[in-house]
Write a structure and sequence with these properties.
heterodimer, A: alpha/beta, Rossmann fold, five-stranded parallel β-sheet, 5 helices, globular, B: 4 domains, six-stranded mixed β-sheet, 18 strands
C-alpha cells in the first residue's frame, strides 16, 4: 500500500484529503498542520508521497518542499494550492514538485494526480 | 451514524468559527500595528483557508466574502491600500458578516448579505483608494453579537492515554479508600467513599467512551484493498461488510489493523479458489468474504469468513509433524479443533507459494500474538470445501479488565474474564490421574486440570501435576479457562468476586516470569498477580 503524508493547515482540508485517499486504498501515514511538523513527519514516516499546501502558518510550502528535497530527494511531492497562486506553483515545480492540485478539488482530480505521481518513477 | 457530509459540515463550521475568532483578534491588533507583516500574513492565511474550505463545501457566499477580504488584505500587504479608519470599519464589518454567515449556515430564513457592505468591500478591493471617502456608513447590524465557541475539538490520542492511566491510578486508590472506610466503620467516610466510587466509575466509562471510534473507520478501507489483492491474484471477490457502527477503543483497532489485513490476504490468496475452479465445484465464480462486527457483552466480536476451499487438516498435521511441532502419533489422535489450533503455533505456515500479497514467513502466530497482547481471543472453524471462519473476541478497552479474583496459598490472583469459561466445584473422586496429568469430565468433554498450588509453588524437580495425593481437601474449586481452543481447569484454594482491575505491567526483573501478565493492587492494599492464561497453557503443555 502506498503511503502518503498530508500537509495542510486546515483540519477540514486534511480530513477531506485523508478520506479521499484512504477510501482509494492509500495509507495516510501522517497529517501535518504546519511546516515544522511536515518536515519531522516526512523524516520519521518516510512516505512515498507528500501532498503539500503552499500557505502554512510557520513557513511557506516552498520552504518545506526545499527541506524535504534536500534531505530526501526521491520523495514525491505534489502541491495543493488555491486559484491565484500560479507563481508559487511554478516555482514549486522548479524545485522538484511533480504536479499540483487546485482547491477546491474534486475526488477524481486528486486521485488522478496522486496515482499518476506515484506511477511516475522517472521524475522522482 | 453520522453521514460523511454531516461530519464534514461539523468540521467546516468548527474550523470556520476558529478562523473567525482568530480574525477578530488579529484585526484588533492590526489597528495598533497596521503594517505588521506577520499579522497580515496570518490574516491572509486564515481568509485564504476559509475561502477554499467554503468553496469546497459549497457555501459560496462565505467564500465570496472571504475572497474579497483576502484581496483587500493582500492589497494592504503590498502597501497598495492604506489601513485607514474607513477601511478598517469596512473590514471589521466584513469579518462580522463572515461570522454571521457561519453562524447562520443552517438558518434558511437568513436573508441576503447587506448590499451596502458588499459594495463597500468592492470599492476597497477594486483599489479605488481615493474613493474610500465614498464608503457609505453601514448600519451596524450586529448589535446583539453573541460570543460562541466551537463544540468540536481535535485531540491527540496520547492525551487520552494519559487520562486513562490517571483514571487507572484513581481506581486503585478508590478501592483502597473504600476498603479502609469499611475497616474504620465510619458512616460519613463510607458515604463519601461510595460517592467516590460512583464518580470514578462514571469517569472511567466517560474516558473509555472518549477513546471509542467506529469500526467502520477500518472496515471501510477494505473494499479497495480487496479489489487490489483480487486483481493481483486473478480472483473474483464479493466483499460483505456489516457492523461498521460498532464502537471500539482506538488503540485496539490500531493494533488489529495489520492482523485483519493479514487474514484478508490469506483468505483471498490461499482460501478462495480461482473462478474456473469454483465453477467446476458448483460454486459462484466470485468468492465471498465477509467481515462483520457485533457487540457481545463487554466485548466486540469480529467474524471473518470466506467460502473458499477451507483448511486441509491432513496438510496441517503433516506440516506440524514436518516442523516437529508434534509427533506423528499425537497428530493422528488430534481432534479437528486441536489440529486447527496448530495453525497458531509460531513458525507454522501452510502457504505453498510466495505471492506478492502473502509472503512466506508470516503466519497466523503473528495475528495470534497481536490478539494476545490486547487480551483478546481468536478461534478458527473450517470445513473443507466450504470455507473458513475466524472469530475474534476483542476487549473494548485495554487498560481496565473484568477479572475473576481467587486465592492460592494465601496469595491473591486474578484471571481476565475474557479467558474464563465457567467455574465448577468437583469432588476429588471425579478427577482422574492420566499419565502425568489430572483430567476430568466437564459436560461430556475431557478437560485437563492443573493444581495451581503445585504449579506455582512446587520445586520444579519435585513437581507432580498428575498426583492426586497432593490435593488438599475433598471438594475442589476449578476455574475453566480457554485459550486457542484448549480448555484447562485451574484448581484454586478459594474463589472471590469478579471485579474491574487495572493491570500494570511487571517491571524488571519480574517481567521475565512468564506465567504472569501483570499485577494489580486490591482495595485491601494487597498485591494481586494477574495470570497470563496463554502463558499458563503453553507452560503446561511443555511440562507434559
Amino acid at each position: 500500500m502506498k503511503r502518503i503524508l498530508v500537509v495542510d493547515d486546515s483540519f477540514y482540508m486534511r480530513t477531506m484529503l485523508k478520506n479521499m485517499l484512504t477510501d482509494a486504498g492509500y495509507e495516510v501515514v501522517g497529517e501535518a498542520p504546519n511546516g515544522q511538523t511536515a518536515l519531522e513527519l516526512a523524516k520519521s514516516t518516510k512516505p512515498d508521497l507528500v501532498t503539500l499546501d503552499v500557505i502554512l502558518p510557520d513557513n511557506t510550502g516552498l520552504d518545506v518542499l526545499k527541506g524535504i528535497k534536500s534531505e530526501q530527494p526521491d520523495m514525491k511531492v505534489i502541491i495543493v494550492s488555491a486559484v491565484g497562486q500560479e507563481v508559487i506553483v511554478n516555482e514549486a515545480i522548479e524545485y522538484g514538485a511533480l504536479a499540483y492540485i487546485v482547491k477546491p478539488f474534486s475526488e477524481e482530480k486528486v486521485l488522478e494526480v496522486v496515482s499518476k505521481a506515484l506511477q511516475d518513477d522517472t521524475k522522482a | 451514524m453520522k453521514s460523511r457530509e454531516e461530519e464534514y459540515k461539523e468540521i467546516f463550521v468548527a474550523e470556520a468559527l476558529e478562523y473567525y475568532d482568530a480574525l477578530n483578534r488579529h484585526i484588533s491588533e492590526l489597528e495598533r500595528k497596521p503594517q505588521d507583516d506577520q499579522i497580515l500574513a496570518e490574516v491572509f492565511r486564515l481568509l485564504h483557508n476559509l475561502k477554499a474550505n467554503a468553496k469546497a463545501i459549497g457555501y459560496l457566499q462565505i467564500s465570496d466574502v472571504s475572497h474579497k477580504l483576502e484581496t483587500a488584505f493582500s492589497l494592504i500587504r503590498n502597501r497598495e491600500l492604506t489601513f485607514s479608519d474607513e477601511v478598517v470599519t469596512v473590514l471589521f464589518d466584513g469579518i462580522d458578516l463572515l461570522g454571521e454567515l457561519i453562524h447562520n449556515i443552517d438558518n434558511e430564513n437568513y436573508g441576503e448579505a447587506d448590499p451596502v457592505l458588499l459594495r463597500n468591500l468592492d470599492i476597497i478591493v477594486d483599489n479605488l483608494s481615493d474613493s474610500t471617502i465614498e464608503l457609505a456608513k453601514v448600519q451596524k447590524y450586529n448589535t446583539s453579537k453573541n460570543l460562541s465557541l466551537s463544540d468540536l475539538i481535535y485531540i491527540q490520542i496520547k492525551k487520552l492515554d494519559h487520562l486513562m492511566n490517571l483514571v487507572g491510578e484513581l481506581m486503585i486508590d478508590r478501592d483502597r479508600i473504600i476498603s479502609i472506610s469499611r475497616e474504620l466503620n465510619n458512616d460519613e467516610l463510607q458515604n463519601v467513599s461510595s460517592h467516590l466510587y460512583r464518580i470514578t466509575e462514571d469517569l472511567q466509562y466517560s474516558v473509555m467512551d472518549a477513546r471509542l471510534v467506529s469500526i467502520g473507520t477500518l472496515f471501510n478501507k477494505f473494499p479497495r484493498i480487496v479489489r487490489d489483492i483480487a486483481a493481483a491474484e486473478h480472483k473474483e471477490v464479493d466483499l460483505e461488510l456489516a457492523g461498521q457502527d460498532i464502537q471500539i477503543d482506538r488503540n485496539i483497532l490500531q493494533i488489529m489493523t495489520d492482523s485483519l489485513l493479514h487474514l484478508m490476504r490469506n483468505a483471498i490468496s490461499h482460501g478462495l479458489e480461482k473462478p474456473e475452479e469454483r465453477e467446476k465445484k458448483g460454486k459462484p465464480r466470485a468468492g465471498r468474504v465477509s467481515l462483520t462486527a457485533q457487540n457481545d457483552r463487554e466485548n466486540v466480536l469480529i467474524r471473518f469468513s470466506d467460502d473458499g476451499k477451507g483448511i486441509d487438516l491432513k496438510q496441517v498435521k503433516n506440516t506440524a509433524i514436518e516442523r516437529q511441532l508434534v509427533t506423528a502419533d499425537v497428530a493422528n489422535d488430534l481432534s479437528e479443533v486441536d489440529a486447527l489450533s496448530l495453525l497458531f503455533e509460531p513458525g507454522f505456515s501452510t502457504a505453498k507459494e510466495v505471492t506478492e500479497f502473502s509472503g512466506r514467513g508470516v503466519g497466523l502466530d503473528v495475528v495470534k500474538n497481536a490478539i494476545d497482547s490486547i487480551g483478546g481471543r481468536i478461534s478458527i472453524d473450517s470445513k473443507q470445501g466450504k470455507g473458513t471462519t475466524f472469530t475474534l473476541r476483542l476487549p473494548t478497552s485495554i487498560a481496565v479488565k473484568g477479572a475473576l479474583l481467587f486465592e492460592v496459598d494465601e496469595i491473591f490472583y486474578a484471571i481476565p474474564l475474557i479467558h474464563t469459561e465457567q467455574v465448577v466445584s468437583l469432588d476429588k473422586d471425579e478427577l482422574h490421574e492420566v499419565g502425568s496429568a489430572l483430567v476430568t469430565d466437564i459436560l461430556g468433554e475431557t478437560v485437563t486440570v492443573v493444581y495451581l498450588h503445585e504449579l506455582l509453588n512446587a520445586d520444579p524437580s519435585d513437581m507432580r501435576l498428575g498426583d492426586k495425593r497432593r490435593l488438599k481437601g475433598q471438594v475442589q474449586n476449578i476455574i475453566i479457562v480457554s485459550y486457542n481452543n484448549r480448555k484447562l481447569g485451574l484448581i484454586v484454594d478459594k474463589l472471590y468476586r469478579q471485579q474491574d482491575i487495572v493491570v500494570k505491567p511487571l517491571r524488571k526483573p519480574l517481567d521475565t516470569i512468564d506465567l504472569y501478565g501483570g499485577v494489580t493492587l486490591l482495595g485491601t492494599g494487597k498485591v494481586c498477580l494477574v495470570l497470563d492464561v496463554p502463558a499458563i497453557t503453553r507452560f503446561y503443555v511443555n511440562k507434559r
